[in-house]
User: Fold these one by one.
Assistant:
Number 1:
Amino acid sequence: MTNRRNFIKQLSAVGITGCIPGVISAAPKTHSNPGINQFSTDKIWACFMHLSFNFAGGIRNWGGLRTEFEPEQSLWDDAIQTMASQGVNMVLINLDDSVLWHSHPEIALRNAWTPERLREELVKIRKMGIEPIPVFNFSACHDAWMGKYSRMLSTKIYYQVCKDLIAEAIEIFDTPRFIHFGMDEETYDHQRHFDHIIIRQKDQWWGDLYFYIAEAMTRGVRPWVWSDYVWHHPDKFFKMMPKSVVQSNWYYGEKFDKKQTYVKAYIDLAAEGYDQIPTGSNDQNNPKSIGNTVDFCTRYIDDKNLLGFLQTFWMPTIEKYRQPIIQAIELTGDARRNFEQKYK
């Protein structure tokens, strides 16, 4: 049985049970009309930056797990400055083991940023008009950054560590608007080349997700996740996923076929009334991904549920990858300008 009952009790205590499926009547379904031509231009235009690069999926292709803090300040600074000049108004920062957490310093890389150092960066980012958002990926496919705790999944110790990290990140970020929990690609196929495989499924996956959600919402922060669970389990997803959780379906191709599972998910999420931040990427020789994502999603997602867009670049923040990282940010700026020119 899931932790759903405890989750409901916890949220009831703070008066936000309306976020839970089945607790109150579901939000009405909405159906977008292709060609809709009135959109709010007050959108999120976000980029995803890596402090940590110790996600496990495919990490061998990038030199294996890191043991020392890796990002180069020169590229980090230039990337943030480029975001400001390109109209990017939000940056998601993948924290994981690249912060010397007061609560759990044992998971930190050598020379990780202290919380005080991170705070200094957040001040600089906000002064540039960019909203910083914390990211932890708690997917069992992407939690190698947790060290020994990644092998204690769903235990009392594990829950306490997650609780501590979420609370500390929210405090450092001064109660941000969102916190992203990842939760993508937790399947056998994505882990089949790992030495140690852990997969949560069914009630256990949902129970742990509800735990993360509750930890965020009881602190006044809205949770955000990747949406690919819906590709494989749509019925369960729409029954269980709270409308309070922001959805980022991701599709990195340049051609959009409504019948394709990854693309159709945008339409299905829209029909069920979920708030979305659709996601593209340029890391697979696909520079048109983010622009075409914006064009497609403005046709099929109602304005009220289309919070904005997210550009990812799955590369460590080191000078070797300067060109594609800066290009990704510039492509986001192009997508914003094209959108605003079209819908003003």
Number 2:
Amino acid sequence: MPILRRILLAFLVLCAAVPAARAAGPSLLFDPATEEVLSQDRAGEPWYPASLTKLMTAYVVFQKLKAGRLTLEQKIPVSALAHSQPPSKIGVPVGKTVSVDFAMQALLVYSANDMAYVLAEAASGNVPAFAEEMNREAAKLGMTGSHFVNPNGLFDHRHISTARDIALLASALLREYPEYGHYFSQPAFAIGKRKLANRNSLLRQMKDADGMKTGFVCSSGFNLVATATRDGRKLGAVIFGANSGKHRADLAEMLLVDGFSRPALSHPKIRSIQNLATGAIVPTDMTKTVCKQKPIAIAPSKDLGGWGISFGNYESPVTADMALRGRMLSRSGMKLSGTPGLIRLPGKAGFAAAMWNLDRESSLAACASYRAEKAPCEVLTPELFAQIATLVPDPPPPAASAAAQGSDGSKARKAKSRTKKKKN
């Protein structure tokens, strides 16, 4: 009877695990020490990395620390731009300073969007310059499917990566900067008398877990890079596009447990996985699945300004958004500095996939480049934007997101007393 019971329980566990065994997005199980791949599913497919971006932010900052251009004790200021970032955030007032160490803890334990900007501005002077450094370092690491626009991972059509690339980045962090490993395993982050638990719930769920970083925006779903060590062997898992924070942690644990059960044999390297060509496919949009807000946001007419470009008019916002995502990931779109989005056109003319906040020269050059790629493109003037603003009323604001963008998709939770006893 006990044997039959065990068999029955094992069967039920297997059946229950099947629906949750796959994320909506790619996944990868790897050995960060050898960069070997134990298993993978669509690991070269583009995805929105969300706050997994902060691993690259940390990588660039660690380089500055190593070079002596920053120190952990150094006080760095909070700018108005950094303070304006949406949650998750710490909310330090404009003009105040924080130490680099404080900002790094907030970045990697609590996933603070404002501290990502504070660190970027301290490291490179401004965010665009920091993003350029992020992309240079990504290229050196062989992250051929990644392009970074900002240091916190908040949604941008051009801000993408792949599970393959994120695994390369995680491996580089663990290999090159072991002295900073405590930031990824730290159970809680203290702000005065408050203690905020690490966003990575796998640290509390799996005894072997020891890192690394969560990510969430509505378009990406719930992402996670998770590491665990058992009997001296460390493995890592990348999860993209899970349906919830719990689903994400469960998927990572399943992959890691499976990996530890396998013998340490030779496997293909992470770099052997081919990234799909940028722009070949558009990353999946998880908004309908994981957020309560409307899936497609229309730009308020008051935000339109400068010169711009249009990629055509479409009957529905869904079709226009698909066109925009594709155009932004083309060679011509990746480095444009304007604001991409959808514009509601006067009357029943539909929706334009467009970009604004460009100057005249950039608009003309961009359209020339797109046309060379045989893609439609029209230059939009400031006068046209002004006309749209007078003829098209702004849509109602979108419903509040189900969770803070850039977080683990849930409200911050206080660290439990048992968390205080857990070693970093």
Number 3:
Amino acid sequence: MALTTKQVDKLIRDAQPGAVADGDGLYLKIGPTGAASWQFRYQIAGKRRMMGLGACSVLTLAEARDKAAEARKLAKQGIDPLESRKAAEVAEKAAVTTFREAALDYIESHRAGWRNAKHGQQWANTLAQYVYPKFGDKPVGGVSTEDVLGALKPIWTDKPETANRVRNRIELVLDAARAKGLATGINPAAWRGHLDKLLPKRTKASKGHHAAMDYRDVPAFYKRLTTERDSLSAAALQLTILTACRTSEVLLATWDEFDLDNRLWTIPARRMKAAVAHRVPLSDEAMKLLDTIKRMGKSKGYLFPGAKAGKPLSNMAMTMALRKLGHGDLTVHGFRSSFRDWCAEETHYPNIVAEMALAHTVKDEVEAAYRRGDLLEKRRALMLDWAAYCTTTPAANVIPMGTRAA
């Protein structure tokens, strides 16, 4: 028998826990705390389900019956009312969730899994610079291929590495949005089978390599660096050259990572690209440089402290040192290529020794299985030769083939 408005009011006042049927699957439910709400119970594909319609304080008996009738109609058509409502809620959310909001949510969700805070900041910076101005305020489900191309084309040729990172980050944000139901269809930032048909491959747009100094010019450049006295940026660049390490590995170095008695610098796994600790043998020249840096006495923490207390030099410090010496067309990372070219052209050291000196991952599975050590002593000999090469005069900067060859 159907309920009346008076009966509903009395049941709510009495607040007796339980459920009272109104008919055709509609129930008035009183919870343990006395809270009253409407429920619709139905069966779909042989399974019984219950759908909340709303609180009695905001939904009258007549309104509850109307909602139950709508849900009943869907169920008779074989459509699950609950799933239909969820889809509508997702569609509504997709219409108001912007790409910027989806990106910020992605960054926050993945931040804990990234090796360092810098990675998250790089994500935020690149999206803010190249993407948000183009379609950051557009609904994430409405981002199109044209939108993505609009963000990528201005930098695809001039900044290929950055452009590829930006494309990948857009793709990941949109993939996450699709997983949440906020977007559908093909990902407009996907490369294979999509953007690869619309943009030139990076190898054609640009070599994608870091601009590097010819290894034959390194000794003369290194000599110029030594004249930059009391310059932490120049000293950082010297250490980068001598150790063939990456920019961040050098700038974030702290004194407690160095075992000067054993002439060894151990970079912890959390700071390495491959997330594996890397031991760097220190040459005589590197030891001499470290002594000079220590005598500068500017910090007991970072080797290269920045202007702000407790912070290292900025990523641009060594780049600015390059520009100051007239090499603004080169990159700091390029000195790793200079080192690698020297190894190949001027020495007989095996490739694996040079690759390990650069902390590159051994890609060949068979090779990796047998190379369980890090070839420290072989690399020590290599780095001694490299330092000797860097500090020779330009007229005599070639180490004879086979010197300390492993």
